[in-house]
Amino acid sequence: MYRKKLTTLIQRVQSLYLTLTGVIGLILGYITDFLPNELTDKALLFIIGVLAFISLFCFKRRNFQKKINYGNIIINVVLIGFMVYDLLNSSGGGFSPKKGVELFVPVLLIILLAMANRYINKDEKLIKSVDRFR
User: What is the pTM (predicted TM-score) of this model?
Assistant: First the structure.
């Protein structure tokens, strides 16, 4: 029984996107010094990573999974807002050549979450079409 659930989880494309989102969120926020050392940025990245893994393991409840991903996208937008605020209020303003690279991470996470939601919607349509034939 457990093996069947695990293979179902692994076979889904959105599982790859959600795993990447969780790993990027957790690793870049805590292991490397890529992002600013602001506590809010690190806390939001931790929440993003944890929510991605929660969404990953809720694969049987697709509507709940989509809602978690939409909430995660909103948290990423808030994270971008905090990063832009920190960027503009830091020394040198927003025009220093090395600044602004960290904004790529939440944008990448938003793209990964949107792709996961796209494939969750495809699964939902496939299941509804199969149910019509029963």
Answer: 0.79
